[in-house]
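Hey, resending since the last one bounced:
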Amino acid sequence: MNTTQVNIVVDVRQALSPQSGDELVSELGSLQGVSRAWVSPRTSRLLLVDFDAHQTDTQHILRTVVHRGFDARLVGM
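The structure tokens again:
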């Protein structure tokens, strides 16, 4: 199977608490195609996500974050 790995940064306008960050990372990690999701060690407002572009897309990842009640935007690909 051919994969196209993409890396994105999601800026969450609210700082993530350790609990909300863990829950969000867990939910993102369960999405089909996402190989890794984590909160940036430099700031709790940034989520970093690695995924296969053939299985999911940036808008699905962003919708997942927004659906959890966060004000978020994509800032890097």
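The two ends are 23 Å apart (CA to CA).

Sorry for the duplicate.
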